[in-house]
Specification:
Blueprint lengths: L1 H18 L10 H4 L3 E10 L11 E9 L5 E8 L8 E7 L5 E4 L19 E6 L4 E8 L13 E5 L11 H6 L5 E6 L1 E3 L7
Antiparallel strand pairs: 1-2, 1-9, 1-10, 2-3, 3-7, 4-6, 4-8, 8-9
Amino acid sequence: MKSMQLALHLVVVLGCQFCRPMSNEAFPSEYKTFSGSLYASCRMRPNTQLSPGSPKVYGQVLFKQTGPEGKLRVSFRLHGLPASIHHARAIHIHQYGDLSEGCTSTGGHYNPSGVNHPHHPGDFGNFVSRNGKIRQSVDSEATLFGGLSVLGRAVIIHEKEDDMGLGGDTGSLLHGNAGRRLACCVIGMSTAQFWNK
């Protein structure tokens, strides 16, 4: 009985080593600079591996999060899509901020929990352009804080609509069958200046 109680005590003590909230010292210095918020931005550029005639998408993706428990706000300010075509296009966070082979080297979706699409923290969904532009903001399950931070990872805009995991095949559960990667960018820490424009 005593050995069982000791084992339970160890589980509780060791378990709490991992469940303690992060101290402010573990946050980037910008946390104090911006009164508890973190900001990031991502400068979108066309994929260098695009076939001729593909849309050349430019713009910015902005990120803002107030504290590690706050929702991450993401704002898309993109242009360069065909003005006459209004079909939905998927936008996702991918695992690597590696643009050495265009958008191809960014890997698959960022999926730290190993779950099916569309339940990855950077599965933003579909966006319809108006006059060749996407101007929209969403809340995301992704974070700028801690070990699961998306800083240094890539944002991709795809050629097609995300089937949201309902396509009935393996690709649907991995990436939503969203097609080729039109443009990409790497998420980096920034100031608040872009949010104030």
